[in-house]
Amino acid sequence: MHAVEPRQLANAIRFLSLDTIVHAAEGHQGVPLGMAEIATALFTRHLKFNPADPTWPDRDRFVLSNGHGSMLLYSLLHLTGYDKISLEQVKSFRELGSHCAGHPEFEPACGIEVTTGPLGQGIANAFGMAVAEAYLNARFGAGLVDHCTWAFVGDGCLQEGLGQEMISLAGHLKLGKLILFWDDNKITDDGSTDLSISEDVAARFRVADWHVVEVDGHDIDAVSAAITLARQDPRPSLIACRTVIGRGIPRVQGQRAGHSARLYPEDAQATRELLGWPHAPFEIPADILGAWRAAGRRSAADYSAWQTRLAALPAAERAEFERVQAGELPTGWREVLTDYRRKAAADTEPKPGIFASAEINDLLVGVLPERIVGCADLEAPTSHKRGLAAFTAEDRGGAYVHCGVREHLMGAMANGIAAHGGAIPLAVTYLAFSDYERPAMRMAALMGLPVKFVFSHDSIGVGKNGPTHQPVEILASLRAMPNMLVMRPADAVEAAECWEVALELRRTPASLIFARQALPTLRTTHSADNRSRRGAYVLAEAEGGARAVTLLATGSEVQLAVEARRLLQAEGIPTAVVSMPCWELFEAQDAGYRSAVLGEGCVRVGVEAAMRFGWDAWLGPRGGFVGMAGFGASGPYEQLYAHFGITPANIVAEAKRYL
Amino acid sequence: MHAVEPRQLANAIRFLSLDTIVHAAEGHQGVPLGMAEIATALFTRHLKFNPADPTWPDRDRFVLSNGHGSMLLYSLLHLTGYDKISLEQVKSFRELGSHCAGHPEFEPACGIEVTTGPLGQGIANAFGMAVAEAYLNARFGAGLVDHCTWAFVGDGCLQEGLGQEMISLAGHLKLGKLILFWDDNKITDDGSTDLSISEDVAARFRVADWHVVEVDGHDIDAVSAAITLARQDPRPSLIACRTVIGRGIPRVQGQRAGHSARLYPEDAQATRELLGWPHAPFEIPADILGAWRAAGRRSAADYSAWQTRLAALPAAERAEFERVQAGELPTGWREVLTDYRRKAAADTEPKPGIFASAEINDLLVGVLPERIVGCADLEAPTSHKRGLAAFTAEDRGGAYVHCGVREHLMGAMANGIAAHGGAIPLAVTYLAFSDYERPAMRMAALMGLPVKFVFSHDSIGVGKNGPTHQPVEILASLRAMPNMLVMRPADAVEAAECWEVALELRRTPASLIFARQALPTLRTTHSADNRSRRGAYVLAEAEGGARAVTLLATGSEVQLAVEARRLLQAEGIPTAVVSMPCWELFEAQDAGYRSAVLGEGCVRVGVEAAMRFGWDAWLGPRGGFVGMAGFGASGPYEQLYAHFGITPANIVAEAKRYL
User: Fold this and answer.
1) Where are the domains of chain A?
2) I need a surface site. Which of A140, B250, B440, B529 has the fewest CB within 10 A?
3) What is the value of ipTM here, to two decimals?
4) Using one digit for the tens of pLDDT, what is the confidence trace for B223-274?
5) CATH code of the domain occupying B333-519
6) Closest chain A residue to B68 measured between Cα atoms?
7) Residue A146 φ/ψ, nearest 5 degrees
8) pTM for this model (two decimals)
9) Three-state secondary-structure class, residue A539
10) Which residues does residue B553 pair with via DSSP β-bridges, in sequence order?
11) Which residues from B are below 8 Å from A639, CB to CB?
């Protein structure tokens, strides 16, 4: 086969993308046509990958952070030979059920490393992948883990605060194998970038100690040379590529319409004429396709050498590597939690809710070395650092990432770590600031990444710091999110049970939510089974007759329900207390169990220091609620509970209202 | 009275703050003791303010963005003579009901310009205040509006993405009257800033075209000279102040514990000895207090000159200024909306939901010149720019702020504009990205700022862009938030009704949520009264007998309920359709109205292309739901509705299930 001109390789991306977008009558041509040469340089000369084994652990990771340019990715996957991205699949772009969705949807088996679209998320995920790589490289050695993380990024991702947080921390941590390609096309969906930005983006990266190379993004050799420089530099690199948006389409290139304006067959034809591409729509000449397929085999030697190294490892070492890659838990972890539960049941000393989580995680340090803990400005009050060294520019073996006051980056980093594989990410901060992290939490839920989002300071129990720091609506807002387990344990025993369930999750993130204030032990008898696993259970059954009242509570309010039950029983009213650490798990139980726990025909009262929103699903026709009706206030927390009427006496009164 | 040494003025702040924090046994000493000299320079030599008239429209705005240092603000307010911040109030710091809450809570009458605490919000609010000032300055002239906006800021605010978004856009817009004081103390709550940042913060500001002055933050004269330079420079200014956290407390100054570690009377005593302050706790010598009170009168001449200028204005001009300052609406605005409603009812052409909002806002351009519209990367698809010029560095008369892809900043800017007064802010973006803006939305709700948050692309109706862009949980998450009206109109008539209600709000923000896809007109008969005002109403009553079924729907799904009703009625099942554009308004109606609308004893079916979460409050014991059970998918939207079973046929089936 004669040598194919590199520009024809780029044009293959260009026309496959263009034909598909015209066919779909919708799409974003700006990126695939503007970054075709950049992608050609990366995928044909540098990327370490194997389309025949898309999830090869030591592959380079490629993230299309400007996810609206999804056709660029699908073109590359098809051209380089990913089985699942056949030409038929490409043609089904944006149709229901296609692998080629409007935005890339996480599907590693297809070569889609992460879901992108919401701007800023992709580069922050890439940052997390680079953290995971560095950690695993330190843990298992460069023979098993030694790869780059590449991301394509547009202006939008860099305007987002999330992107800015990433720039700052990646430079600080000197993540030298993280390399971004900036599609500097001077255009956003809103028009010229001049409308909203005038800073020198490259200089901004340099301030954060990034290595920056500026190149013509349509010069394949120049981009390739820049990549070589970037790989050599110990700092993370920005390859700033000057590009023309939608390059090649005469009517829209370099203009706002180049982003995503509707294209027609005439546009495709005009582009063919301009670029000298005489082939029919969707026709890729055999020599060009062959060259692309050869690029897809470019890492064959690396791949087999890696397999050889893996096979040569001592059995235990290999098994450990394969275990963490598979996301499997080691032996012994469950016993650690069971043992903790047993001791916690016997411990009568109240302790801050979050400290139980800290203690549990401290016990896991030796058992689960694949845990990576990110924390946003909160080491002291939550203590999830115990027993861990910091992950720094100098020490990649540390498993604790000081994220600074950057909650959003922390969440997206955790997603990137989870998507990378080989590590279990935790992200720890105050519940009130989960809103800062929420867009990343949504992505975790959407992708089904088993990130553990850990929160402290979960209610008015925060006290004097006041309403800004007191969640009242946040439990509901998280419960509303699909595929997110929201867990709010009542004591240290439930904390261990919830951690046990959370660690077992493979395709679902969990929010583990703890009180700042001290909580008494309510589960004072050790039970062999994990009672939180069913989401809700009868903590104390009604006595002296058929159940008249069920008090349903979570977290720090379960103790109030227990006290209210005592008062009601003393008046001869048979009352049960149901602890509900996780609504989603309870909802998944069979109707019989749910009905038995909730109690039929009785009064039900929900008790939670939060808004009622969502509770009615559990309360039935004679349902009351004791909780918050608005934001909190600044004051000693015991006074706040009284002030807002979240007391045993009011629970009793609410129950009687419906009796 | 002999001259008081400036350092004694600073020490008055220091000891009043310290004594209070020791008294409260909790607080954050780092900021008040570390920024005492900076505050002294600003408040005694530069700030334009009048404690006797705290809400003087042309006062300088002062924002304590590092809100945990609240005692600094309370000390300043007390010392300069704000009536409501008496010594008794100061002593009640962090007690329930005090003006001196754990974090500053919005109360302009006390001199508290904005609620701060969640990091990054304060400086972004300050940015919004500076935008409002520039706009009002252009509109009313420098004789009425010509003031600075000052903000104190710590490392946390600058690490937050929100802070970074602010730096970028403030530099771009050349907001020269925005001046920040950075408390560069090298310490966060987590320890040294070196743990999480190594970039040159001053250089990062310079890249964004800020003017930067670096000074010793404990040298009052140097800070004052820097302020003079900052005021002269046409760019926004950062005064980078090198400080010692908790300065003066021997045990903790300059250390992590300087941030907020518990202090004891011995600490206060040791500080007295170190700094030579022989006075008893809470005792401020008369000469020092006198000098502070004199500082509180420093703008007396400016104040009276301003009043004179206001009084000298032509009556109409003065009335207009006073109207917008009071937040009152002009005559004629309601008629514009009523007229739109009348025409919309007669318009049978379906139109994209968001276009109705765009048309309404276009009509308001001439009527409500106090509207300032911020938009994040979305001008084209929502068209809320129509009729407006851009607010730029060169043209302050434009009322449309191109926010770039910075949703969070947009929301916080809107809060700052609302807190400033004299303008009505709108913030427009996609509903899927409201999560990025959510922390600012929470602050609007908490402060009771009447911001209009406008969202498009509200459901799976977004279609092929896929699940990242399709809200399913976001309606619920916003409805869970206290003091936020969530409005989802079903057609252009309801859109105008909801806008009418939203514009009337004085102490409540609203989220106005619109579909991207075309919606038919359902309210084809003009009604004199605004039916959306009650939150929900019977759009079509059951016929042919007592109501057997109530279909409850919002937004784009009301049309499906109407069609389902037709099918049910055709089978002889008397069925009503209730449109529920705003749950919060409906909840505020009397029980009789609610009961009549919902229907008692009948089957109720909720219909919304979103999660069921929250709906059970309306559905009663025989309640069904047709909507989403998880995230969306990429595909043509009509197919998605069928795929997820949100169809008239399924609504009929769901109703029959409970009949």
Assistant:
1) 6-303, 333-519, 532-658
2) B529
3) 0.98
4) 999 999 999 999 999 999 999 999 999 999 999 999 999 999 999 999 999 9
5) 3.40.50.970
6) A465
7) -165, 80
8) 0.98
9) strand
10) B579, B607
11) 96
